[in-house]
Fold this protein.
Amino acid sequence: MVTKGFTEQVVGTSGELLRRLRGTVLPAVLTPMDGHGTVDLGALRAYAARLDAAPVGGFAVWAHTGRGLYLSAADRARVLRTWRAATDKPLIAGAGVPRDRPPATVADAESAVEAMAVTAAELGADAVMVYPLHALAALPDGHDRAVRLHERVAEASGLPVLGFFLHGEAGGYEYPPALVRDLLALPGALGLKLATLDRAMACQDAIRAAGATDRLVVTGEDRMFGPSLMWGADTALVGIAAARAELTTAVLDAWCAADHTAFVAASARLDRFAEATFLAPIEGYVQRMHWAAVWEGLLPEAAAHDPFGPPLPPAERARVVECLEGLAEGGAV
């Protein structure tokens, strides 16, 4: 049972974060690594300093773009400590099941999510984003267990919780509107992050369900970014901002300012880059973001590897660079 003191604490923290984050972009940051998966802390410190200077509202660490579930516990701790030392902006940490510790049961998986959230709180995170447990989708009581999992995470960590509607290609599952509504009715709920990839109807349904609340409606829709704002999203947490934050902030800022001419132009630029980076194989987007970060001067070549994604041919990098060069020259389409 949630105590009154706990409820007041989390609700108060959640309300403050709502005010700070609504209408802002939160990059789902990369984790600089070499080809063997060794985290480059020097490159990470420089990268964090550069991104902290960008006009963004905060950062998402341990997210899918940063391969949070693939990192060792020690590396996750190093990454979050580095970001906490680099910025006073809010940090939202992913909480899920580490890939190196496959659970024997769904209950074990739920406990692993809770444990990662507690660690994130101890390391200085301001909120946690709960990775969906795909196994719950098939259980008769999966809806209730999903709601309870988010309650457990908030109770154990003492932090506001962001729900995470993640597409199946990345290990998630589709949250029906009823689950969205119940998750956002929790006292510790900060909002819902949407990453449906290309499921426009599911995205619209979830946004409408979330929009009936006062919580954050966070788009992670790199390939439907502009439309997701028009459907009702009010904040962004996206992988593209890990390498090209200004592409995303320009779209969101224009939308919030009701500058529709600027919104259309900025959306065209963002869409062009998304088309070059979010394509099959979708899991290759992380490596493509690393390449973009190198081109931008955010990461050194030696620390721009995603050892957990699919191998990509040289033509993939050439496509990303050609797009970046075109955008630098002022091209929109």
Summary: Residues 4-21 form the longest helix (18 residues).
